Amino acid sequence: MCVCVCVCVHPGKVRWQDFDQDLYVGATVVRPGQDPYARNKFNQVESDKLRMDRAVPDTRHDHCRHKQWKSDLPASSVVITFHNEARSALLRTVVSVLKKSPPHLVKEIILVDDYSDNPEDGALLGKIEKVRVLRNDRREGLMRSRVRGADAATAPVLTFLDSHCECNDHWLEPLLERVAEDKTRVVSPIIDVINMDNFQYVGASADLKGGFDWNLVFKWDYMTQEQRRARQGNPIAPIKTPMIAGGLFVMDKEYFEQLGKYDMMMDVWGGENLEISFRVWQCGGSLEIIPCSRVGHVFRKQHPYTFPGGSGTVFASIQSRLEMKKRLNCKPFKWYLENVYPELRVPDHQDIAFGALQQGGNCLDTLGHFADGVVGVYECHNAGGNQEWALTKDKSVKHMDLCLTVVDRTAGSLIKLQGCRENDSRQKWEQIESNSKLRHVGSNLCLDSRSARMGGLTVEVCSPSLTQQWKFTLNLQS
Ligand SMILES: [Mn+2]
């Protein structure tokens, strides 16, 4: 006798388990002799080898494993936008959502195909249960695509994901719980690293917050020691963060609309995470990272796609956005800097260059020394601290109130840190050769790292040597 089990799947749809991965991914494999990085800037051959529902390590803190989530959480619409994504990566993203979420919490997955070369990349996935596919009929960019997906969403909560993610165990419940408690919270998971070369699911530090530098580039900041100590009693407590990485977050749909969604005049990609982070904080909401939620993401070193019209043309009028912020009674940026991101050093009007002073992957570093100590170089860590310098209008190179000082004006002599003094010619420097070198004004010698390992930085006769090439993170003079 045959017993049939009824599986409730809509007509024409299949369960993800029944989706033909080999047929879908097989159509776009990397041919022998082709560069596996050419299309996606990650190793597509390795990505294609993996099963769509491969097992990944549970990277959560132990405390998360016993946690009970509220039973009456709101459902979410998952919005995934993509442009020419590798099929295997896109499919794994979709499958991991379906596999790792309680079914009643995922109302739908909305794939927004931002005019990929092959419309089938998205269209074929529309066969999978809960997946809806929207395709732009021209390239719109990330922001307008996300807004299109959000507008089509029918669940009360929006979950935005990148198209090369893998959701981990119970990733969704802790995010939804925080948003259900307070609609003005915008939350994101800890983003685990998936290695772009071998696709190993690596994990991530739980001691990071999102921040930015003055080139307005997102970066991860280590929590201060004080912040880490405060968390020892409750290591899985939500982490207030000045900035979200941008690709992965959960937000109440009504709140997203109230706050002005995204700026529809923003093109292509980038900067939108800073913009929405500032807006959420300044307009009364908050941003959190929820440690019990983990989602893997393939981090790349390069953009895989082109910027139509060039990346320098993505500017537009922000008049209507300014009016909106007025209407919403948003606080000024100064408030954000002082209250949300007090760790960030703000360049003042005296600075003409600012940030780390870089030489390749190394940065000028106080090495923890104070007055009369030498300075050296150390691997750049982008966390400010001992690597934070400013060149000021009065020509000093400053770290806090210590200045680079040429004690002895002969080539080969060590540079010392000394308290900054006005009008001390031993502390006057200028940038030369298109801001690529630092020359001591009084001696015409250049800052040099050739003896960094034998004592410290020195001044030397200026030359084309790479040990004299220094670049500030941010140059405010042209
Ligand atoms: Mn991404």
TrEMBL record:
It catalyses: L-seryl-[protein] + UDP-N-acetyl-alpha-D-galactosamine = a 3-O-[N-acetyl-alpha-D-galactosaminyl]-L-seryl-[protein] + UDP + H(+); L-threonyl-[protein] + UDP-N-acetyl-alpha-D-galactosamine = a 3-O-[N-acetyl-alpha-D-galactosaminyl]-L-threonyl-[protein] + UDP + H(+). Belongs to the glycosyltransferase 2 family. GalNAc-T subfamily. Its main location: Golgi. GO terms for cellular component: extracellular region; Golgi cisterna membrane; Golgi membrane. Catalyzes the initial reaction in O-linked oligosaccharide biosynthesis, the transfer of an N-acetyl-D-galactosamine residue to a serine or threonine residue on the protein receptor. Has a broad spectrum of substrates for peptides such as EA2, Muc5AC, Muc1a, Muc1b. Probably involved in O-linked glycosylation of the immunoglobulin A1 (IgA1) hinge region. Involved in O-linked glycosylation of APOC-III, ANGPTL3 and PLTP. It participates in the regulation of HDL-C metabolism. It is a single-pass type II membrane protein. Its cofactor is Mn(2+). GO terms for molecular function: carbohydrate binding; metal ion binding; polypeptide N-acetylgalactosaminyltransferase activity. One of its GO terms (biological process) is protein O-linked glycosylation. It is found in: Golgi apparatus membrane; Golgi apparatus, Golgi stack membrane; Secreted. SUPFAM superfamilies: Nucleotide-diphospho-sugar transferases, Ricin B-like lectins. This is Polypeptide N-acetylgalactosaminyltransferase. Pathway: Protein modification; protein glycosylation. It holds the Pfam family Glycos_transf_2. Residues 348-473 form the Ricin B lectin domain. Its EC number is 2.4.1.-. InterPro entries: GalNAc-T (IPR045885), Glyco_trans_2-like (IPR001173), Nucleotide-diphossugar_trans (IPR029044), Ricin_B-like_lectins (IPR035992), Ricin_B_lectin (IPR000772). Keywords: Disulfide bond, Glycoprotein, Glycosyltransferase, Golgi apparatus, Lectin, Manganese, Membrane, Metal-binding, Phosphoprotein, Proteoglycan, Secreted, Signal-anchor, Transferase, Transmembrane, Transmembrane helix.
